[in-house]
Amino acid sequence: MRFIAFLLIQGWLASCTSPVEKPIDIASPQVSVGLEKTQSDAKEALLPNNIVAVSQYCPGVKVDLKYATPENFMKQVLYTKWKDAYLQKEVADQLNTALRTLKKTNPSYSFLVYDAARPVSVQRKMWIALDTIPVKERVKFVSNPNNRSLHNYGCAVDITLIDADGNTLDMGAGYDDIRSIAYPSMETYFLKTGALTSEQVSNRKILRKAMFTGGFTNIPTEWWHFNACSRKFAAAHYEAILTEVDF
């Protein structure tokens, strides 16, 4: 009985003593996972359909969304809701890789995105606007909306280079220029004729070299356009964006 009484008294004393709080282990799996998720959510701003906003997900990349302004070949505002450029997350990862390469070779340069994801509804307006051009020639500049464009999947980006002051580098032809002087495939010819300078061609090559390291490919008719994958791959892995609010 005395032994039992002793145990009871010990238990009562223990209950009256302030417990020592165990330090939180911030490296424990549960806590670290929560912190990583919060940081990831803040960084990625992941939208439905695995889409990210370029200005948030790609630090150092600037955006001048031309189709949200009249500064495009149609001379009208086509994006009424979008103010940022959007890409599939994997494509944005490729863009970040390309930017790191660019910074290694040209630390004062960065990217300026003119367009990225593009709704099929806008693609259709562009296609119709160029209906005076034969289809064979029209597809060099705008994909048939019925066949979808890589822009429609968030897998293509229209992009240029800017210097430390935010000025665009001279590429010898402006964005949305449908003249052949904008063709990468014609650069050698126009360099020989003097229509393009060696500096303009060099600027294009710097852009291409950086983008190629990110896994992008260029097309023969637009120095600013880069694809992240094939159209077949995009159609198999992503959903087409039909409208500005459809991710």
Please describe what this structure looks like.
The chain is α+β, with helices and mostly antiparallel strands. The chain has one domain: Muramoyl-pentapeptide Carboxypeptidase, domain 2. The chain is built from 9 helices and 7 strands. It has helices at 2-16, 29-44, 54-57, 89-105, 120-129, 135-138, 187-193, 198-213, 231-237, and strands at residues 51-53, 62-63, 86-88, 110-115, 156-162, 217-219, 222-227. It has a 5-stranded mixed beta sheet with strand order 2-4-5-7-6, covered by helices on one side. A two-stranded antiparallel sheet has the order 1-3. The N and C termini lie far apart (74 Å). Residues 1-46 have low confidence and may be disordered.
Short note summarizing the structure:
This protein is an alpha+beta fold. The chain has helices spanning 2-16, 29-44, 54-57, 89-105, 120-129, 135-138, 187-193, 198-213, 231-237; strands spanning 51-53, 62-63, 86-88, 110-115, 156-162, 217-219, 222-227.
Widest beta sheet: strand line-up: 2-4-5-7-6
Which class best fits the helix and strand makeup? alpha+beta
CATH class: Alpha Beta
pLDDT < 50 runs, ≥5 residues: 1-46
The whole-angstrom Rg is 27 Å
- The global form is globular
CATH architecture: 2-Layer Sandwich
Instruction: State the helical fraction.
Output: 25-40%
- How many independent structural domains? 1
Span of the ends, CA to CA:
74 Å
Q: Per CATH, what is the topology?
A: Muramoyl-pentapeptide Carboxypeptidase, domain 2
What is the count of β-strands?
Answer: 7
Instruction: State the helix count.
Output: 9
Mean pLDDT over the residues: 83
Please write the string of helix (H) and strand (E) elements. HHEHEEHEHHEHHEEH
The main pleated sheet reads as: 5 strands, mixed
Q: How much strand?
A: 5-15%
